[in-house]
Protein 1
Amino acid sequence: MEISFHELAERELNDAAEFYSHQQSGLGAAFITEVQRCSDSILQYPEAGPIVLGTTRRRLCHRFPYALLYTALWRLPF
């Protein structure tokens, strides 16, 4: 399975990283690293996040007030 970001979510992610970079040197990179860690956790445990609506789940990031909303799309191997 792989993770892909909606175009607007990716824009929000980049804007947040830029904001954090302006707050403190290296903080934007730390934010991106935390989002990647959170994404890896979703890949490893896709059903761990609580359901917030229908099949949409939420995974909170540590250290930053940010959450990833996601839906697992299962693909058959054929």
Protein 2
Amino acid sequence: MYLLTTDGTGGMAMMLVYVVVIGVAMYFLAIRPQKKEQKRLNAMLSELAVGDSVVTTGGFYGVVIDITDEDVIVEFGSNKNCRIPMRKAAIAEVEKPETE
């Protein structure tokens, strides 16, 4: 009543099938969604412009006042003296200003 052959090649083949199935499942459950989110984040940061409202990864709300290649200067609150340079990677969300 053994499902595997006695020489062990059937067991080795089944183990290989299990490893492939687990690898495919890991790709679709972990790697693919992470790559998709990274693409979305890169697209959002590439469209960043002066005047956009942003939320940082720390939860601070501000307005972009200057952009360089890797950094942005964000103005926080109504105090015009609170300008902080930060990395683009520290921006979690971007909201474009509405034009009417």
Protein 3
Amino acid sequence: MKPAWDKLIDAYEGSSSVIVADVDCTSDEGQSVCTDNNVEGYPTIKYFTDETGKSGEDYGGGRDFDELDKFVKEKLAKKCNPATKEDCDDQEKAYIDKMQAKGVDKIKSELERLDHMKGADMKADKKQWLMKRIAVLKGLAGGKSEL
């Protein structure tokens, strides 16, 4: 499970809505965290949302990367809504305004251009911004009536 978890940590590094971390409950530093969160067996995966409160909930799904990633995307990650700008950070909001001003044709051509860049080797922060822009553009292209 460790390689899948490490891959999940890398995938959400820099996310504005998801933090993936691990705690070594056998270390002096980790023992209090685990005790405070009622972790008794290892490995234990817990997640925390507004709905779960400070106590969190135990994750009981699959432990390979695809299952963990699916859970994060469906249950934990907040997605920017380009139509309302809800859950959008300041950078996304500025990008939405900029692209809406350019119109549907430019949005579609920019989406195509960025889609071709997805496989490129780049730093994590650049990759994250690329993926955010693609998501915004897809939202804008699907919501043509709002342009």
